Amino acid sequence: MISRIGVAVMGAALLLYIATVVWLAVLFLAVGTPAAVGMGIALIVIAPIGAWALVREMQFGFAADRLGRVLHAEGGMPEAPGELTPSGRLLSRDVDALINVYTSQVTASPDDWRARFRLGVVQDAAGRRKDARSSIREAIRLSRTRS
Predict the structure, then answer these.
(1) How many C-beta atoms lie closer than 10 Å to residue 127's C-beta?
(2) pTM
(3) How confident is the model over 55-91, as pLDDT tens digits?
(4) Which residues on neighbouring strands pair with residue 90, listed in sequence order?
């Protein structure tokens, strides 16, 4: 619940930022000098990009949260090893073995979103954010085609 509140606050802050940027763009355009017009156009281009990024991240976050809740309710979330770092990450000695276990599950069932999601969770706990996001993104895609 706290993370949803954080998302709402950050979303509201970004929307306020976008409104301010558009307002400043209009003011720059009203000045009429070439430099001001260029700045105004640049700000008008940047605002929709920020809005698009916000929407994409929120879609990803809500979809990943939904799959995580489903998997948790089914009792299918990966078990954490006995020892973690103080920040909650996997110890470096456990990383390769755990990732290999969950990668083999994905290889055995490439169309199973649950296996792909579990791999993403383990990759995230190992600190491999880019790989984790990719795995979870694929799990989201698979859940939509198989549901």
Answers:
(1) 14
(2) 0.76
(3) 898 899 889 999 999 999 998 888 777 777 787 777 7
(4) 84
Three-state helix/strand/coil letters over the chain: CHHHHHHHHHHHHHHHHHHHHHHHHHHHHHHCCHHHHHHHHHHHHHHHHHHHHHHHHHHHHHHHHHHHHHHHHCCCCCCCCCCECCCCCECHHHHHHHHHHHHHHHHHCCCCHHHHHHHHHHHHHCCCHHHHHHHHHHHHHHHHHHC
User: Is the distance from CB of 47 to CB of 25 less than 8 angstroms?
Assistant: yes
For residue 4, what are the CA distances in angstroms to 10, 22, 62, 144?
A: 10, 27, 9, 22
Token readout for 15 is 């929307």
